[in-house]
Amino acid sequence: MTNNNTDRYGMSIDASALPTSRRGRPRDTGKDEAILLAAGTLFMERGYEAASVDAVAHAAGVAKATIYARYADKEALFRAVLRHECEAVVTPDSFQLDPDRPLRESLIAVATRFLDLVLGDKAMGMHKVIVAESARAPRMAELFFETAVLALKSRFAEWLRLETRAGRLAVDDPEGAAWRFMGAVKGEAHMRAAFGLPPVPAETLERHLQACADEFLCVHRPDRQAQ
Predict the structure, then answer these.
(1) Which of the four pLDDT bands, split at 50, 70 and 90, describes residue 45?
(2) How far is CA 187 from CA 55, 154, 183, 191, in A?
(3) pLDDT digits (tens, 9 = 90+) for 111-149
């Protein structure tokens, strides 16, 4: 049975996907990093089905038991890799309520980090593998969507709820608004990357992110809705 918990945002967490804690000697964080790095590389190169825990252990230079001491199974390891990659760019602190920070600045910061995540080499590499394997290994796509995409959307939606309760935004549908903002941010830049086309110039990309923030505020700023 899955043992679920919740994080600081009330989001459900699959406890089996979290590294297990052991009493006794402190855990070797170097091995943690080696495992996640090796697993991420193999999942990206071989796909979810073909990348075995044995291969990850060999590439990381650890025993297979060392991996199972941290992760219940390959699915938990894959989730951990995705979570590690996401939080290396978009941390939970990215969505902290900060009344002293202008909303426009916060939205642009979130948009920038989100785009850094989805356009990163590993993210694009994983995206191509998932598309190629979607028919043969649909579970890989499901895990990627649940762990990376839904988790990020849920954190952003909860941030919108908090800002709405604080009276700084007026968002009636945080879940839908989060999807629309994330989709708008990806825009041309992600489509170009997916097709292997030259990237959008930095200045154009900066103007795009600013426009996304401005358009979002135009719709959801309380004083605009009161007019």
Answers:
(1) confident
(2) 37, 20, 6, 7
(3) 988 888 788 777 777 777 777 777 777 887 888 888 778
The DSSP secondary-structure symbol of 195 reads T
What pLDDT digit, counting tens, does each position of 161-218 carry?
Answer: 999 999 999 999 999 999 999 999 999 999 998 888 999 999 999 999 999 999 999 9
Determine what percent of the chain is predicted with pLDDT higher than 90: 46
CA 92 to chain centre: 10
Cβ atoms within 10 Å of 105's Cβ, excluding its own: 11
Which residue has 């994330």 as its token pair? 182
Which whole-number Å values give the CA distances from 198 to 8, 84, 90, 187, 189, in the listed order? 39, 28, 25, 14, 9
What is the gyration radius of the CA atoms in the chain, in angstroms?
19
Q: Whose CA is closest to 122, among 96, 71, 69, 84?
A: 84
pTM greater than 0.90: no
- What SS3 class is residue 7? coil
Strand runs labelled E in the chain:
4-6, 12-14
Answer for the pair 122, 40: CB distance below 8 angstroms, yes or no: yes
Q: Which residues neighbour 107 within 8 Å (Cβ) at sequence distance 6 or greater?
A: 181, 212, 213, 216, 217
Distance of alpha carbon 221 from alpha carbon 164, whole angstroms: 9
Strands 4-6 and 12-14, how do they pair?
antiparallel
User: If DSSP codes are grouped into helix, strand and coil, which group holds residue 12?
Assistant: strand
Distance CA 150, CA 139 (A): 15
